[in-house]
Predict the structure.
Amino acid sequence: MMKLFLKLIRDIKQSIGQFIAFVLIIAVGAFFYGGLVTYSNNLSAYTEGYFKEHNLSDLYVFYKQISKNDVAVLSEIEGIKKIEGRYTFDATQVFEGEKASLEIHSIPIENEINTIAMIEGRIPSKKNEILLDSRYAKEHLFQVGDEISIRANERNFALTISGLGENVEHAKKNEIQDHKAYGVAYIAEDTISEILGGTSYNEIMIDATEGYDIDKLGQSIEAQSKHLSYVNQVSKERTFSYSKINQTIKNNKLMSMVIPFVLFLIVAIILFLTMSRMIDSQRNQVGIMKALGVKNRNIMLHYMGYPVLAGIIGSIIGCTIAALVFVPLVTASSARAYSLPGITYSLSFYSFIPPIIFSSAFGILACYLSGRTILKERAAQAMRPKPPKKMKTLLIEKIPGIWSHLSYSYKLILRNIFLNKHKALASSVGVVVSTVLLITAFGTQFALQQVASQIEDVYTYDLRVDYTLGTSTDTVKLPPGIKNRYYLSTFPVEFIKGDGKDNATLVVTEKENTLIHFFDENNNQITLENNGVLVPKSYADKYHISAGDIIHITFKAPELQNKSVDMKVLHISTQYSNPSFYITPNYLKSFGIDYSPTALFIQANSSVDLHSVRSFFEQDPQVETIADRNDLKKTAEYILKQNHFVFIMFIVCAVILSFGAIYTISSINIYERNRELATLKVLGYQKHKINRLIFFENMILTTFAILVALPISGYVYSMIVKALSSTHQQIPDQLTIPIMVVSVILAYLLTILSNLLLQRKVTNINMIESLKGVD
């Protein structure tokens, strides 16, 4: 066994480049597996514990005003485990001409719901004390003990920072996590009277009994609130922070399964091809080992050692690089995306095991399937080279005037390819797989850019103004300088078609709204009509919806009491970011539902007017938030920034994987043709001519592989996009010509690079050794 092990080491040394390429291929798969699984598992485990430890509220109910006594009465409702009242309001701070918004909550005296994770200092316990979220404080260089000035209720107040912390309900504040322009703060209940002149609440947080139906609980609360100034309610599943972080976890779990699976599948194909051809090329060595009395089982184990050793080394290297590169980048990305105090990402030791098992298993299977036929042969038979194949006349030879004009080199290339059709096809498989991977990698990166760019194509408003809950359009005041304005409102709904159902958002806006645009899958603009609904393509793809179908919508807002309606599908709308269903106010009213707008899209006459218009709305106490086109650009840039490094690494790894595949296959081709190439050298063929012979043969095989890969890549890309997409996230599934051209050029460049690196292998062919044989 020791001699067989030494032979294994010698085989590796003789083809060290091939072994390194092998290890790199496995390392790429292990790299993505280790990195993505670490990110997905750690984020999921942390958030589950974080939400539980700080008791995230199951339901938020909003009122214009509610007293402590009323809160105590509501606490008796069945299904409520714990109820807490608080007052929430908006304030502003000004920094050198720039304004920042603060969402301020009062802290219940006995706070057990949405408790604060303290970073520094203490929770406010006195009047005129405030706790800031740590990210906002860091942006503005605030520290515990500093005095800050805020403006609320048209008055200025001086408050002292008692502490810094993070709250479970604001794990994600807004789309781009802009901590400089937006922050969250907490004050003691005693401070409410100082700022607002009263001690009532406008919001209650509810910790529901485990397993109790939240929808049923919400309806009970609304029924008990008829004598109160009830406004609205939102379950935790529909809050911005909770829904976003859970969508991220869901997408990460999909990516952690899909991407490593695709990469390991590629690794498996290359391993299978390589090991099969390696054993076949060493049949005479197998015969010698059999003649020396080595058992078949030991010979098989000897060859199985090659992929196992490569699998162990490659998996360790891949996972180690993931720990050093992928995990720190993911940590930085997560810190930008969420406020999760104390979260850490560390690669588990067990992450090394699946890549080792997977790569080794395919290598062992390849060895078994390739070696069992040779091992059945007698020693003398195995030691003889396979009899040369009988060459039939090629089709091109029958075409007059072509074959005779070809040079001897090209005749050799064509004869070799057609004489070894199976080997040529096997070689092409590696190039096909690598080309498909390159196209998929570039396609995914381009798709990400399309997602970001569509945001600005869809929304062309200058300002989006969102009003506080309960605001009526009759009380809304508008300044001069507005060119166009359109109202809209949103409803939480449940979409139902057949046996399938999903949470969704229904947006209602005027048919004439020119500040929001809709596109079909061919990027042609479509319009809203008064007799149907626009359905996002993400939902249409999952539930097989077509224009003209009837879909079932249930309104989940408690005041609508689960009202269900049937809507006709007008068009399928391509919406990459935040896909929603769209209808007009007239269509909504046809179902007996009142239209109560909650937001306003505005287009100003000029940039000068835009400044005055914005200033007007900033002074309006009914306005909750204002967004402009810069916010849209920031959102697009944020999407690119958050995902850029993953896809850059994916492209780099695709290049490494492709190079490893092409180099490995080409290396084996040379090894198998040692005898033929040695013969040419003996006959006086010059070195550069032999290299050119191999080069052109590989280029022909690469060209054939690319022609096969192009249609396959479209299918593979659509499958990966489908796996990574969901009803709440659509990814473009169309490949463009430039992407394919870049991928094809890169495949050729990698083939050229492989040929250049393999020239030394041709030079080092031992003519005497290679020409020895039993004839």
